[in-house]
Amino acid sequence: MSVSVHYLSLQISEQEWLRYYAGEATHIYCTDTNGKTISIAARHFRPFTTRTGIHGVFKLTLRSNQFVSLNQVY
Predict the structure, then answer these.
(1) Which domains, and CATH codes, for the chain?
(2) In this structure, what are the phi and psi dihedrals at residue 5, rounded to the nearest 5 degrees?
(3) What is the maximum alpha-carbon separation in the chain?
(4) Taking the model in full, what pTM does it have?
(5) pLDDT in tens, 14-38
């Protein structure tokens, strides 16, 4: 089983996040620091929601391309 770690910088406004939170959009497409595009289920970002949306740098860990964990590092 291969483990991969990706660092993502996200700036999602409150209005844009509401689309995800309401279920209108289910996945967030973002680019990691190495330029790889990754699709992540929006539900994984709910713990990081603030009044202004979602902002910060996140560490995504995958095992065999399956979600393992998501942590905010900044």
Answers:
(1) 3-72 (2.40.50)
(2) -120, 135
(3) 38
(4) 0.89
(5) 999 988 878 889 999 999 999 999 9
* 52: amino acid identity, one letter: T
Q: Output the six-digit token pair for 51.
A: 């009044």
- Please report which helix (H) or strand (E) contains residue 9, including its range: strand 3-13
Contacts of residue 3, defined as CB under 8 A and 6 or more positions apart, other chains included, come to 61, 62, 63, 68
3-state helix, strand, coil in the chain (%, to 5): 20, 55, 25
Q: What distance in Å separates the CA atoms of residue 67 and residue 16, rounded to the nearest whole number?
A: 23
Give the model confidence (pLDDT) of 43-70 as tens digits: 999 999 999 999 999 999 999 999 999 9
Cα 48 to its chain centre, rounded Å, is: 9
